[in-house]
Amino acid sequence: MRISPGLLASVVFLLPLTPTARRAAADDPAPTREFEIKGDRAWLGGHQVNLWGLRCGNALHSVAITERHVRNLDNMAAHGINLIGVNVETQRQDAYQNDGIFNQANLDYVFADCRRFREAPNAAMLFHAGFIQGITNYSGSAPHAEMGGYGTGSRDRGVRFYYEWVRDNVGRWQYPRHVPAAKPR
User: Fold this and answer.
1) Do strands 177-179 and 172-174 pair parallel, antiparallel, or not at all (unpaired)?
2) What residue segments make up the domains of the chain, in order of their start?
């Protein structure tokens, strides 16, 4: 999959800040890191980066929804998610009418997609789920910036399985790259 220049206008990179860095940033803003495409690869601040993200097409739906996404940026980065985007995504596996619930066939499809993207050196992964997108707000609280539950039923709606798969198989995001998860002892 080639990353087109049009994609540049629809992505936001997550750059986690520590509380100290947040306070310093308020007083002395740091320069913006430059995003570019070299050949068919993404680069950020002079470093080649692999993109793992979420499709959050409704993140700007309201000030409250945008704030929920902003408040979840550190959690996303801790789980390896370094991109929020729109208009480029995997095929959604949960129904908008029942967002955040996945059966085993749905999960198998999602994880197969994740493995294909992980092996593709020039691909960006944007996971698409009704739970995140929240078109119909079936759950009464969508769109969801948070990972929620494992998606096993109506009392466990969520996409936690994706967050954990990226963290465990790609690594947490720490600029300028993913840091692999520690191997179990």
Assistant:
1) antiparallel
2) 5-179
